[in-house]
Amino acid sequence: MVRFELTVQIGRSRQSSHRASSSQSRSRSRSRTRHSRPHSPEDRIPLVERVPPPARDDDPASIYLPPSPTDNTPEKKSLPLGLRSSHQHLSTSNNESLTNGPPPADEPPGLNPSPKQDGSRSYTDFSPLRRKFILSVITIAGFFGPLAGGIYLPALPVLEKEFNVSPTAINVTVSVFMMTFAFGPLFWSTFADWKGRRPLYLISLAIYILANVLLAVVPANYGALVFLRVVQAFGSASVVSMGAGTVADITEPKKRAFAMSIFLMGPQCGPVLGPVLGGALAEANWRWIFGFLAISSGILWLVILSSLPETLRARVGGGRIYTERPIFFWPPSMSSPLAPSWERGPPPPIPTLKGYWNLFIYPPIGIVSFNTAMLYSTYFAIAVQLPTELSQRYKWGPSGIGAGFLAVGIAMIVGSLLGGRASDWRRARAAEQLPEDTKIDPEFRLVDQIWGVLICVLGTLLYGWMVDGSKHPAAVLFATFLTGFGMNWVFVTTTAFLTECVAQQAAGAFALGNLLRNPGAAIVSVITPTLVAKMGSGWCFTGLAVLDLLLVGTAVIVLRLKCPGWRADRAAKMQLAGKKAGGPAAVP
């Protein structure tokens, strides 16, 4: 009965439309007749349910869409920019039905990222294999900057004679490297969050390679050595900020801590393996130190040019444009193609010096920057004093001293991996106990820092008294293991917290988080020998342990208690700024 009535209505509409208008008008009239003709409740054809695409709450590139004037739903969720057009197309009025045909010509044929089998949308379109490849490449790239600082140390006595300068003058080349490496990421992260990551990997590594080539071949001139060390540090500093941003691009927040721990293995292994490699190469010729860095980083540069895709979500979205491309690009190009506009995430705020200052004075970032500087300075105090203690107190040779750094190096790797795994595991357990759409606050990860601080403090305390009492070298190395393990446990959770706290400025936040580390280490390397000579190793490192416990431990507790309020205030300010600008504000 329903079918017959509907057929008669359609037929009548066709006859009247044929006499009144063209074929296109007939189609529109048929559609109007179908929707405007009244039916009884029993005969009415049910409308297709309009369900908007699921929002990815963990996507840092989500924006707030205000409710449609014709929408009766009380609340809208945050939707990613790639889903905005689809959401607006699906949110029709209650008097309209949703067609099952293709979208209009001005609508995108697909959405990014691709849907999963359960209907949700994946955070990225890069395959698991490609994500592992990207993570491996940036981890190796992150290894070269700290490696250049550590591999140089065993050659300092040789360079004193080669350049005919004093020990203080040759130590200046170490200080300028560390200072440049501290502030260089601020420059590179300015472009890493705005212009894309792939071109900057290539440009910065090219600068690093050029500096190493010149250091290996130029005549022995002290001024040239200082200048080229600055250039070397500047080129290698980029990966510190860009690597963290790349991890945030391809890894969803619930798995980000472990991925960040993998990336941090590169920068953390550099200072450990550097002295071992530098001691071996310096015995042959000190120029081979820089020759080795130039050759190895040149190979990495070719790998990045030919196979590393762009990951910045403001340029490629979830990376769907790479799903059909082979892993090796030919012909290679400096920059990547842009994804369609509806697939790209919103661009990060335009970086400015004022913006960086505002980011730095944001209490969570300022406090974690201080925390990492304190712990890294404690570790570096041990690192600069350990060779002296092993050579003078235990009569170890250069090769043995280099091998002694392996204990703390292994500790850093294990601390990063276990710390990242533990933080992700706790976050996953908390997510299972909460309602499905409930977000987990970034400061949830800060609880994990307390254990790392305690372990680092214990290791520092043991190191001072083990050395002071001339205990067995194994006890001394075990103490350094605890210090490195606890320090990196804190570092990996801190980095994951930063990438979630200010997701759109992950590279800049990570650079600011490292801002105080190297200057702090430079200061400690100068004053530690004097403090040990006047106070003894036991009381010197006891003082450092107490400072870490009081200052860093208190800061972690303050962050845990006050961070939700600070984050809410920042979000309100950004929303207000967005309204004044006449558009939606990005979620911080």
UniProtKB/TrEMBL annotation:
User: Which spans does this entry mark as compositional bias, Pro residues?
Assistant: 101-112
Membrane topology summary: Multi-pass membrane protein
Q: Gene3D superfamilies this protein is in?
A: MFS general substrate transporter like domains
Q: What is the lineage of its organism?
A: Eukaryota, Fungi, Dikarya, Ascomycota, Pezizomycotina
Enumerate the InterPro entries for this protein: MFS, MFS_dom, MFS_trans_sf
Segments of skewed composition (Basic residues): 27-38
- Protein name per UniProt: Dityrosine transporter 1
Q: Where is the composition biased (Polar residues)?
A: 88-100, 114-124
Pfam families linked: MFS_1
Q: Does the keyword Ubl conjugation apply?
A: no
Entry's localization field = Membrane
Residue span(s) of domain Major facilitator superfamily (MFS) profile: 134-560
Spans of biased composition, class Low complexity?
Answer: 12-26
Start and end residues of each stretch annotated as Disordered: 1-124
- Transmembrane ranges? 133-156, 168-188, 200-220, 226-245, 257-282, 288-308, 359-381, 401-419, 446-466, 478-503, 515-533, 539-561
Q: Signal peptide position in this chain?
A: none
Q: Is S-adenosyl-L-methionine among this UniProt entry's keywords?
A: no
Q: Which UniProt keywords apply?
A: Membrane, Transmembrane, Transmembrane helix
